[in-house]
Amino acid sequence: KAGVTQTPRYLIKTRGQQVTLSCSPISGHRSVSWYQQTPGQGLQFLFEYFSETQRNKGNFPGRFSGRQFSNSRSEMNVSTLELGDSALYLCASSFGQMNTEAFFGQGTRLTVV
Amino acid sequence: GNSVTQMEGPVTLSEEAFLTINCTYTATGYPSLFWYVQYPGEGLQLLLKATKADDKGSNKGFEATYRKETTSFHLEKGSVQVSDSAVYFCALSDRSDYKLSFGAGTTVTVRA
C-alpha cells in the first residue's frame, strides 16, 4: 500500500511569488491535513479537509489556502511568499477522524529567497 | 483549547541507557494521545498511540501510558540504541477539532 506522497520534495521561490504544493493520501483515506514545521514555531496546523470540505483551519493568514479534490488528493497554495514562509510543509492522511491513526508524507521543503 | 507540553531537549544518552521523555496535555474532552518520531530529512512516523485512560501504547520497545489523573503520556524505553536518535513529538487529537496538536519536540541523540 503506497504511503502519503508529497510533491515536490524541494522548492525554492522568490519573495512575492506564489507556490502550490500537492499531497496524495493513502488510498481510501478521506481526511487530509496540512502542517507547517519551522525550527522556531514547531509543528503548526494549517487546515484539514474531508470529502472536499474544509473542517478546520489554523491561525494562518489568508495567503495560505487549500483544497481537496474528489479523489481525496489535496493541494495547498501560498500566495505573495514571504521569507518567513520558508518551512517544511507536511501533509497527513487518515481514514476518518484525526483521533485515529494519521500517516505523514515526507514533506515539501520550501525555501523563500 | 488543546495543548501539549513536552520535555525540552536535547537529550544525549549512551547506548543501552534508559530513556524517558515527559509529556503532559491540556484538553477539554477525552483526546487520543500519540507519540510520533521524525528521523533526519523525513516526515513523521507514528510510534505509538493510546485512545483512552489507562491504555498503554507500545512499539519497538517504547511504551507510554495514558494517565488521565495526571494528564500525562510519558514515553519510555528501557535500552536505547544509536538508531533511536531522532526527534520525538507528543501529540493529541480529539473528535471535535479534526487536527493534531503537537508538543515542541525532543531531540534525542544516542552515542555508541
Which key phrases capture this entry?
heterodimer, A: 113 residues, mainly beta, seven-stranded mixed sheet, four-stranded antiparallel sheet, 11 strands, globular, B: 112 residues, six-stranded mixed sheet, 50% strand
What does this structure look like?
Chain A is mainly β. Chain A is built from no helices and 11 strands. In chain A, the strands form 2 sheets. In chain A, strands 2, 4, 5, 6, 9, 10 and 11 form a 7-stranded mixed beta sheet that branches. Helices cover 0% and strands 50% of the residues of chain B. In chain B, the strands form 3 sheets. In chain B, strands 2, 5, 6, 10, 11 and 12 form a 6-stranded mixed beta sheet that branches. The radius of gyration of chain B is 13 Å and the shape is globular. The mean pLDDT of chain B is 94. At the A-B interface, strand 4, strand 5 and strand 10 of A face strand 5, strand 6 and strand 11 of B.
Please provide a brief summary of the model.
Chain A is mainly beta and 113 residues long. Chain A has strands spanning 5-7, 10-13, 19-24, 31-38, 42-50, 53-57, 64-68, 74-78, 87-94, 103-104, 108-112.
How many individual β-strands of chain B? Answer: 12
Mean pLDDT of chain A: 94
Biggest beta sheet attributes of chain B: 6 strands, mixed
**Share of residues in strands of chain B:** over 45%
Percent range of helical residues of chain B: under 10%
Tally of DSSP β-strands of chain A: 11
Q: What fraction of residues of chain A sit in β-strands?
A: over 45%
Order of helices and strands of chain B: EEEEEEEEEEEE
